[in-house]
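Troubleshooting: if your tokenizer reports a length mismatch, compare your output against this known-good record of 201 residues.
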Amino acid sequence: MDKIVLASGNAGKLKEFSQLFSGWQIAVYPQSDFIDQEAEETGLSFIENALIKARHASRASNLPALADDSGLAVDALGGAPGIYSARYAGTGASDEDNNRKLLAALEGVEEKDRTASFHCALAFVRSADDPTPLVCTAAWRGRILLHPEGSHGFGYDPLFFVESENMTSAQLEREVKNRLSHRARAVEKFEQLWREQMLGA
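Known-good structure output:
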């Protein structure tokens, strides 16, 4: 296997995955090379939506597919925005729109209670009807600031404060984020699964 499809149209995710997979001897193609319309995310969890997207991309490309579904879960909001993170402020909302809505939802919540976590679910299917997909998840704990800080990254990165680094995800150097993030940790788990189940290592 030397080609897989990445089931995402998110430019930020595509960039991060390209960096994270740069050492693998596998060519990663964006699903936009094969389809114009993304899958309808009807699942109720990150894992369900990742599987829906992976199967959709595999069916359209006739290639193995890897999908990521990720988002932010804020404890004080009962896990919101959760699976609706990308469209928290509505379909087509910008990162800035979503961040503004999140800050408004947390207005009056004390700093100690603004804990949150980024979650990432990865699903890999060898074919659209693969009955034994590879699935793994990872989380990254932090808290939500009162205002954005930093210009790197995307999504909620400017609001997500990483205690161990004393800065937001949007202030981290790329190499540091690619070591600490929920997506990086999920990819690390996925690589281990890949070696065990695909390569027999």
